[in-house]
Amino acid sequence: MNSPSPIDSLTPRELEILRFAASRLGDKEIAQELNLSPRTVQNHLHRAYEKLGVSNRIQAARLLSDHYSGESIAMSPPLPIKADRGVSEAPVGLLEDGKAPGGALYRRYIALNEWRRPRKMGGSVLWLILLWALAWLMIAVVGASLINPVLEMIHSLA
């Protein structure tokens, strides 16, 4: 008689989240897909890890694959990043604990896309800088030319 598989002990939600995780989606992507919070997704994944006796997504995905196919299937490696592609086009891999590398600040930086590059000097920005410099220069010249008359007026009052 067949012994029950650890996969059979998973709840339907844990199994669903585990399938998404096996397809290399991050916690936030799974959460958006299922209308859950990323923290809830993490909780379901960790409960599933405990039930399956594994410690990360890769092991859980392999166990899930073994269960459905009856044989171990090697997981495909992530796609290599070509040298001509930018940072924002690189696929974000997951670490062993299921979190994306870099943290929140890095993800916000990547989300900026073309805004993260400094603006090119030219056009209206260059003219604006030159006009401000000219205005401050004029203020300095006018101020310097008024020093002598003001000092003479103060001297005549004394």
From TrEMBL:
Presence of keyword Membrane: yes
Coiled-coil segments: none
Lineage: Bacteria, Pseudomonadati, Pseudomonadota, Alphaproteobacteria, Caulobacterales
Protein name: HTH luxR-type domain-containing protein
Transmembrane residue ranges: 125-147
Organism for this UniProt entry: Brevundimonas diminuta 3F5N
Domain of life per record: Bacteria
PANTHER family for the chain: TWO-COMPONENT RESPONSE REGULATOR
Pfam families per record: GerE
Alphabetical list of CDD domains matching this protein: LuxR_C_like
Gene Ontology BP terms: regulation of DNA-templated transcription
Transmembrane helix in keyword set: yes
InterPro entries, sorted: Sig_transdc_resp-reg_C-effctor (IPR016032), Tscrpt_reg_LuxR_C (IPR000792), WalR-like (IPR039420), WH-like_DNA-bd_sf (IPR036388)
GO-annotated molecular function: DNA binding
Residues covered by the HTH luxR-type domain: 3-68
SMART domains: HTH_LUXR
Keywords: DNA-binding, Membrane, Transmembrane, Transmembrane helix
